[in-house]
Amino acid sequence: QQPVQSPQAVILREGEDAVINCSSSKALYSVHWYRQKHGEAPVFLMILLKGGEQKGHEKISASFNEKKQQSSLYLTASQLSYSGTYFCGTAAAGNKLTFGGGTRVLVKP
Amino acid sequence: EAGVAQSPRYKIIEKRQSVAFWCNPISGHATLYWYQQILGQGPKLLIQFQNNGVVDDSQLPKDRFSAERLKGVDSTLKIQPAKLEDSAVYLCASSLDSSGMVETQYFGPGTRLLVL
């Protein structure tokens, strides 16, 4: 089953923060985060594993709440380059990666 | 290091025609994936290969879609005959191993298909 992402879209000013959530109804083993710019391939940001630590990529970090089967992606002090669509992909034990519907992020000057 | 290569980048066909897409994964990557991404949605897995064997094709519409990876390297995805609802971006990805739960998948630029 497809994970649910929220919000569907967010508009930020440069330097502002945002949080993107990814929820699943299944017990998860891993959560993968990707960013896709218009007309381009999804680019890998980070993987979070069950029992693992919070990860970071530049000023983008993420956490994984195993009890809630939810992951959150934190965009801190956003830059213009952070604009794009963010996808979470979730995998339960033994299952394939399933992607959410995406969260569109627009960072304005 | 060269990334995942795909061709063509764009294709426009009429319904009921056939079309084929090609993918060359990152060198040394054993696992290859084909995804369909409809506008405004996340990628949906169509088929996963481990070397030249199929690991998962549960979401592949087998009455019209076929895929092969004969020598365990590059792969071809075919649609025959195409329907209007096949209009989408077809993404190819590869990873070192088959454990998709923890392996990073690297995506190619995709082929944008428009069926008229």
What does it look like?
The complex is a heterodimer of chains A (109) and B (116). Chain A has one domain: Sandwich (Immunoglobulin-like), CATH 2.60.40. The mean pLDDT of chain A is 90. By secondary structure, chain A is mainly β. Chain B is mainly beta. Chain B has one domain: Sandwich (Immunoglobulin-like), CATH 2.60.40.10. Chain B is globular. The chains are: A mainly beta (109), B mainly beta (116). Chains A and B meet through β4, β5, β9 and β10 of A and β5 and β10 of B.
Layout of secondary structure:
The complex is a heterodimer of chains A (109) and B (116).
Chain A: E1 4-6, E2 9-13, E3 18-23, E4 30-36, E5 43-49, E6 55-57, E7 60-65, E8 70-75, E9 84-91, E10 98-99, E11 103-108
Parallel strand pairs in A: 2-11
Antiparallel strand pairs in A: 1-3, 3-8, 4-5, 4-9, 6-7, 7-8, 9-10, 9-11
Chain B: E1 5-7, E2 10-13, E3 19-24, E4 31-37, E5 44-50, E6 53-56, E7 65-68, E8 75-79, E9 88-95, E10 106-107, E11 111-115
Parallel strand pairs in B: 2-11
Antiparallel strand pairs in B: 1-3, 3-8, 4-5, 4-9, 5-6, 7-8, 9-10, 9-11
Q: Measured on Cα atoms, how large is the radius of gyration of chain A?
A: 13 Å
Unreliable stretches of chain B (pLDDT < 50, length at least 5) are: none
**Gyration radius from CA atoms of chain B, angstroms:** 13 Å
Number of helices of chain B: 0
Which outline of chain B best applies?
Answer: globular
Apparent shape of chain A: globular
User: How is the quaternary structure best described?
Assistant: heterodimer
| Through-space gap between termini of chain B | 37 Å
The end-to-end span of chain A amounts to 37 Å
Mean pLDDT of chain A: 90
Any idea of the CATH topology of chain B? Immunoglobulin-like
Q: What is the CATH class of chain B?
A: Mainly Beta
Largest interface: A-B, 25 and 20 residues
The overall pLDDT average of chain B reads 92
Name the helicity range of chain B: under 10%
CATH superfamily of chain B: Immunoglobulins
Instruction: Please state the second-level CATH architecture of chain B.
Output: Sandwich
